[in-house]
Amino acid sequence: MKCEWCGQHEAEEINCTVYWELPDGTRAIEITDTPGMECKSCGMEYQAEEIIQEIEDQLLLIDTTKLDKSISYEQLMKKKRFLKYNYFRF
């Protein structure tokens, strides 16, 4: 796949650990097994825009005060939401 950073066709799908600041800015959490990309050419690890948006939306729509310091991507996405959709995204 084409790397979004260097443009070379050496990006591969991976699962990785990311660190995310909560929307209220009180702390950051570790999210393990997050879908991502890794480029063998430039060494960059990153998430596709869709994954970033999913994480951001989920963190806005759940009770983040109940999150531990670390959670898997799958567990995070299964958390019960206050709303079904982020109505504030344009």
What would you say about this model in short?
The protein is α+β, with helices and mostly antiparallel strands.
Would you kindly provide a written description of the structure presented here, covering whatever features stand out?
It comes from Halalkalibacter alkaliphilus. This is YokU family protein. Pfam families: YokU (PF14122). InterPro entries: CHP03829_YokU, Znf_MqsA-type. A hairpin with a 5-residue loop joins strand 2 (28-39) and strand 3. Strands 1, 2, 3 and 4 form a 4-stranded mixed sheet that branches. This protein has 2 helices and 4 strands; from the N terminus they run βββαβα. The protein has one domain (11-78). It is elongated. The protein is an alpha+beta fold and 90 residues long. The two termini are 29 Å apart.
Key words describing this protein structure:
90 residues, alpha+beta, four-stranded mixed β-sheet, 2 helices, 4 strands, YokU family protein, Znf_MqsA-type
Secondary structure class reads alpha+beta
Find the count of extended strands (DSSP E, 2+ residues): 4
- Percent range of helical residues: 10-25%
Largest sheet data:
4 strands, mixed
Q: Cα distance, first to last residue?
A: 29 Å
- Counting DSSP H or I runs of 4 or more residues, the number of helices is 2
Query: In percent, how much strand structure appears in the residues?
Result: 25-35%
| Poorly predicted runs | none
CA-atom Rg in angstroms: 14 Å
| Mean pLDDT over the residues | 93
What is the chain-wise order of helices and strands? EEEHEH
Number of domains: 1
Shape: elongated
